[in-house]
Structure formats: C-alpha cells, structure tokens
Design brief:
Strand content: 15-25%
Order of helices and strands: HEEHHEHEHEHEHEHEHH
Bound molecules: flavin-adenine dinucleotide
Structural class: alpha/beta
CATH architecture: Alpha-Beta Barrel
Helix content: 40-55%
Number of helices: 10
Shape: globular
CATH topology: TIM Barrel
Number of domains: 1
Radius of gyration: 17 Å
C-alpha cells in the first residue's frame, strides 16, 4: 500500500542529509506534519526526520521513508499520537529499529497507564525512546488525568528507563524538575540521556542546559507550522506568547 509519490520524500530527506531543513511542503499530505529536529547550540545542525503517527500505520510507507533517511544518515523519530495509535506505532518502531540497528526513536507518554509495560518491551530493543507527559486528552479508564499523577508517573517511568536502558533516553519535557531528576539518575546509574524541548519554549533554559547536557530542539518546518502552533497553544496557553514573540523576531 504505497501512497506517496516516492520522489517527493526522497527529495526532502536528501536535503536534510545535506544539512538543510526538510522541504515539508514537498511531502505528500500524510507525511506533511513531519518536522525536523535540530541539535540546538554550538554543534552543527543535525537534521532528523520526525514522522507523524498516521504514517506509522502504513508499514510500507514508513519502511520506505526510514530506508531513505538511513541512506542519508538521518535519524528518524516516530512521534506518538492518541492511544488508538500506540500499538501500531510501537510495532512499527520495533520492526524499523531492528532493521536499522537502532537508527530510529519512538515517543511514549507518561499519562497512559500502559506505558510501564511498553517500557519493559522497549528496554531490550536498539534505538532511542523519548518520554513525554502526553499531549492528548485520554479516557480516565486508561490514562492518568490529574497533573500531579502524570508527573508522578513520569518520575517512576524515567527512573525505570535509567535502570533498564543502556542509553538512548530522551527527556521530552520543559519541566525543570524532570530535567533535574534525569541528571540525578544519570549520576546514579551512568546511563546516557538527551534533553528535547520545543522550539520557542524556555529557550534561555535550553541554551543554558546545552552548555553541560545534550539538548535537542524540536523544530516545526514547512507549511504546517500553523497547525503545529494550534496544537502547542491547545496544550498550554502561555505558548501563544512565546510563538508570537518568535514570529515577530
Ligand atoms: C521534544 C518534544 C516532543 C514531543 N512529542 C510528543 C509526542 O510525540 N506525543 C505527545 O503526546 N506529546 C509530545 N510532546 C508534548 C508533551 O507530551 C507535553 O504535552 C508537553 O511537553 C508539556 O509537558 P512538559 O513536561 O513540557 O511540561 P508541563 O508539565 O506542561 O510543565 C511543567 C513545568 O515546565 C515548565 N514549563 C513548561 N512549559 C513552559 C513554557 N511554555 N514556558 C515556561 N515554562 C514552561 C514550567 O515550570 C511548568 O510548571 C512533546 C514534547 C517535547 C518537548
């Protein structure tokens, strides 16, 4: 079931491999929510491809995209959408990260009650795992809905990851408490980790952290930037102020 025009995505990945951002406008609609992640400070920009969950459910499309990214040395992250996509995304990750010897990462969400089991499944696999709090309103019978409970789950899951993983941990949070916890866990268990934050959110902190830690910035790119902004503002109203400042600048 190949539903892309292969030429379009190949072009985007080739551009990424040459050090430029992705030409997301040239991606077919299903992949057009993909974004580039670039290493934030000092280091040269390292583009990676972030693939929207809607693509993960089409194994041949995803395999095709990851193959082309790998050929250009571009790391591929699979983002995570609502709970109806979790199984398909984890299955896709497992297949692709085995094929590409760890050149793929996946996002898991602390607000979902299933995530502890998912982390046990992911621990022995190659590749990277990003832990986020979760951006979707999920049903109370499968998810933690109170913020303090989600925060507690994040702490428990991050601790498990530092205990069980050999490396490849990504802390996808702007929360200073979670970043501090990751540093403490690194000191205790020695496991490598990276910090990932969204462009425009706590930028000063990102630059400060990058002096001592591995910090990556999630950069929206292409014609879908407005829907990206809507999603971020829906998560947190204060992000509107950051976004407007970024647009003015
Ligand atoms: C790189 C990255 C990738 C992501 N990918 C996904 C994904 O694939 N699927 C998904 O469901 N979700 C994803 N998310 C979103 C995530 O699930 C959360 O909704 C979002 O990050 C908010 O949670 P938080 O941990 O950053 O901080 P919160 O719990 O929202 O806030 C905690 C504290 O962080 C600080 N803070 C947070 N935001 C700001 C701000 N704007 N300005 C100043 N301080 C702030 C404040 O001190 C605040 O009290 C991603 C997030 C990041 C950073």
């Amino acid at each position: 079931m190949t539903s892309y025009e292969p030429g379009a995505l190949a072009l985007a990945v080739a551009r990424a491999g040459s050090g430029l951002s992705f030409a997301v406008e040239e991606l077919p609609p299903r992949a057009a929510r993909s974004v580039a992640l670039a290493s934030s400070l000092g280091a040269p920009v390292v583009p990676v491809l972030e693939v929207a969950a809607v693509v993960h459910q089409h194994a041949r499309d995803l395999a095709w995209a990851v193959d082309r990214a790998a050929a250009e040395d571009v790391f591929v992250w699979l983002d995570m959408e609502d709970h109806t996509t979790t199984d398909a995304t984890l299955d896709a990750f497992e297949a692709e990260t085995r094929t590409h010897d760890g050149g793929v990462g996946v996002c898991v969400q602390a607000n979902l009650q299933r995530t502890a089991d998912d982390i046990d499944r992911l621990a022995p696999l190659p590749g990277k795992v990003r832990l986020v709090k979760g951006a979707y309103d999920e049903p109370a019978d499968i998810a933690y809905t109170r913020k303090d409970r989600v925060d507690a789950a994040y702490r428990e899951l991050l601790t498990t990851m530092f205990q069980q993983f050999d490396g490849g941990i990504a802390v996808g949070s702007h929360d200073p408490a979670m970043v501090e916890l990751a540093r403490d866990l690194h000191d205790e268990f020695g496991t490598d980790f990276e910090i990932q934050m969204l462009m425009g959110v706590r930028e000063d902190a990102q630059y400060e952290l990058a002096e001592t830690d591995d910090v990556w910035q999630y950069v929206p790119y292409g014609s879908k930037w407005l829907s990206y902004l809507y999603r971020r503002v829906a998560e947190r109203r204060e992000n509107l102020r950051f976004a407007l400042r970024a647009i003015v600048n």
